[in-house]
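Sample entry (450 residues):
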Amino acid sequence: MAWSATVVVAAWMAVLAALAVVVVGVALDRAADDSLRARAQAVTATAQVRADGSVTVLEGPDDQALDTDTWVIAADGALVEGPAGAGAAPPRVAELAARVLGADGELVDTVDADAPTRLLGLPVHDQSGQPVAAVVTAASLVPYQQLRELTLVAVTVLALLLVVGVHLVLRAAVARALMPVAAMSRQVDAWSTSDPTQRLGEGPRPTELASLAGTLDALLDRIAAALRHEQVLTAELSHELRTPLAGMRAELDWVRKPARSDAQRQESLAELDTALRRAEGVVEGLLASARSATAAPGRCEVAPAVERVLAARRAADAPGRTEDVNAVALRADVDQTLAVGVEAAVLERALSPLVDNAYRYARSIVLVTAHRDQAQVRITIADDGPGIPADLIARVLEPGFRADPGEQHRGSGLGLPLAARLARTAGGDLLPQAAGADGGGVLHLLLPAA
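Predicted structure, serialized as tokens:
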């Protein structure tokens, strides 16, 4: 970044330096012409034209200064005035004088002999306005060239110093600006291996760094979601396979007993086949969830999953309900952009028993809502049934617990514990809420936000 900016600055400085040299050259040429013109006009002012047309030059106190490299040449080519001891006018001076008399105006010429010399000629007029002589002044251009070369060297050195200074300042500024980026990268790298639940957050940062912090936090979200995905998958495999494997081991022990009859052995083999199929179904279901390409691993939208659970509940019977099942409305109020850090299959599996439980006890409505609560998403399943008594809140998540064992429904007391286990494995929780004075069951399913 610093080198790119330096190259751009160097290119601009080269253009400016070239422009400066051109401007200085033009200014020096004008200065040389102005100096020559002033001398020529001063000599012209001292020239007198007699009645016979001859020209004389009045001698003044600065005559020697005016005569230096100055010639007054008559129309017939005779030298009227010239530098002391110079003799005849040089050929280029005589040629310029003739051209001035012919053009009757100012002319400028440059002579490149031993040293470049600038010539300027002005005509001298008689009383009738006719040119009768020409004043030619000369000046060496060597000092001007030296000044031009000195200007080029000075501008070049100044440009180089400026480019070097700009490069050093840019490197320091870029390094200073990238220090927070390097610190954020190191922090995120450390968190990604040790604690992916940490986040950079929304601290006071420049706009660019705030955008980078958001991107890195999103990366940590995906890493944490992937880790939760692996944890949930491992926990589900361990939990779901334990029961069929234990059943298969028990049936194998029965088969090995010598007192078993053929019919009993066939019955045990049928039980083994059933348990094996159940284990295969568990493995296939969880692997299908792991291979799902409909969303990023460990992430799903809440609204579609809720709608699928409610649709499945509408299509099924209501176990244990004695009143008209069509009297219970199933509704959802979930933001379509809300997402959680678990797979859709896990969310639906945790949500289904909660909806079933609310549907079983509701009088007229079951409402599912969801909102983001800091780093978690709170999914609330509420019904207008009797609710959970305050003295049973501590036990409703115990496996096999039923508030009233005499109730005539097929519930086994495992739905809420299953949902709680899934939520906790994913880094969330299930919080039952005690019924108020007017009743009403409320369960809060907490899952990590994505």
